[in-house]
Amino acid sequence: MTTPPPNRPYQNVHRFAVFTAACTFLLLIAGALVTSNDAGLSVPDWPLSYGSLTPPMVGGIFYEHGHRMIASFVGLLSIALAVWLWRVESRRPASERPPVKGSLRWLGVAALGAIVAQGLLGGLTVLFFLPPSVSSAHATLAQLFFATVASIALLTSAWWEREPVSWFRDPRSPSIHALALAAVAAVFLQLILGAAFRHKAFGIIPHLAGAVVVTGLIFWLAGALRRRFPAVPELRFAARALHILIGLQLLLGAAAWWSRLYAASFPQPIAVTVALTVAHVVLGALVLVSTVLVTLVCYRLVRPAGAIVGSPAPRPSTAD
Amino acid sequence: MSKSRTLRPGSSSGALWYFAAAITLAVAMMSCGGKGQPSETAAPANPAAKPVDAATAGTVTGSIKLDGTAPKPRNINMAAEPNCATQHSTPAQTEDVVPGDGGTLQNVVVYLKGDFSQYSFPPMSTPVTIDQKGCQYHPHVLALETGEPLSVVNSDQTTHNIHPVPKDNREWNESQPPGASPIMQSFARPEVSIPVKCNVHPWMKAYIAVFNNPYFQVTGKDGAFTIKNVPPGTYTVTAWHEVYGSSEQMVTIGPSESKSVTITFKAISAASD
Hints:
The structure holds two protein chains of two kinds.
Chain A: E1 2-3, H1 11-36, H2 59-91, H3 104-127, H4 132-155, H5 158-161, E2 163-164, E3 167-170, H6 176-198, H7 205-228, H8 233-262, H9 271-301, E4 302-304, E5 314-316
Parallel strand pairs in A: 3-4, 3-5
Antiparallel strand pairs in A: 1-2
Chain B: H1 2-6, H2 9-31, E1 50-51, E2 58-67, H3 82-85, E3 109-113, E4 119-120, E5 128-133, E6 136-138, E7 141-145, E8 150-154, E9 160-164, E10 174-176, E11 183-185, E12 191-197, E13 205-211, E14 216-218, E15 224-230, E16 233-241, E17 245-253, E18 258-266
Parallel strand pairs in B: 1-4, 2-18, 5-8, 7-13
Antiparallel strand pairs in B: 2-15, 3-14, 3-16, 5-6, 8-11, 9-10, 9-12, 12-13, 16-17
């Protein structure tokens, strides 16, 4: 589908972005463990923990301080990623940059800004005893940061740098771009509702309603990808991945809710509830990242009907 | 793209410095709050108030009963905290419903509701103590007056954080390492009851009831209560339990009169089973 570029100036920064994204995924797990173990206020002070960088790692402190340590590491990675992207882009004339690359440096800066804001929100939520709005914002921004870093990883990849052999036309309405963007927006709103439920700002009903909307949109998007572009391996893979992720997420959500009800009268969080809830949270993040990446891939490969495109020449999609 | 290329490192460094300075300032300001805050002061008493006349004061006595079988307590898993686990020869258990002797119920806050604004009460200066021992609070339920000192003690060889979650009082959250001196706090406003938790050990729970008069007691092993020095009048005897909620009875106390009240909670399976 694409031709290899003559050289790979983004190769190393791409690897670094993938590493940062992987560490961010671990950070999301660590953050979800804090909430699931009801350990959010086990360390009353911030930015230090019990006035030190090495508090006793007992009980909830293990989760809270562990989360802070991983977050600090990801913060350092974000600084390095932003500086690296800036330097790589500054060395290349605009004419040599693949699509979107001109803005990549600013995406790095945005990721850095997000992780700094995320740290401050984390501090606020500790110092003000977990206000639902701040805690929900902290949980939501984490997902946005993850999506940003994952996008940087895609946009610096060899696949993205290659010129597509052909564009695919999308004559149907709504366009695949619109569907993908709608899915991203719906998933993001659903993550906000989920975070708000988890941090006791709302009840479960809005999150359940959001699940219905998100499931419908993702099935619509995945179905459209499969039907409209059956010969495009990337989009076929995306359709399959979205189906699997949303199916798993629904199962995990139901299981997490069941275990929460089952353990409601227990004196402490039980392992099953913690595992299911954490899995549901991080899979939610993966669903957001997937829809964002699928949207980027759609913009890379598909042109709406009637769009004026240069080389390579547009080509009708192979179905519909 | 051309716009971004016109930005030079020199021109953006100033903005970056401002950004870093703003972050540092925000962190410094946030670091100043949240820990070790002083207690609030209780509202001043009515200047026209007078002490209760001991010659005419009466007494309300009684007991709190539990109708039915109490739910079985749940074992607490303290494997994550060996320091505490070893203090219990048998697994520690939840204390949300603790039956007393003869069908009574422990850990019930019994208090009088009424108009006591015309009376003054001597300030309580002896601290009420809550101890963290074996990763459980002792006592599990306590009551004190507004402004009365609360002493939080850590008898464990592990770190705790003490975190009351009030609705009407100031929330605070303080850490207490092993061997640390007691934390002294107080509450400014009446509130029944304030949940207290340790986020390091999520099974640790206690309740603190706060009153602006001395007419309260927490039931012990015999499920009984005695509220003395009550001025003549009509009051609502209220019993509050963390699982069963509140139950009330009216009582009228004549001069030097003593009345007995029995309040019964139904043992619904609300706690655990």
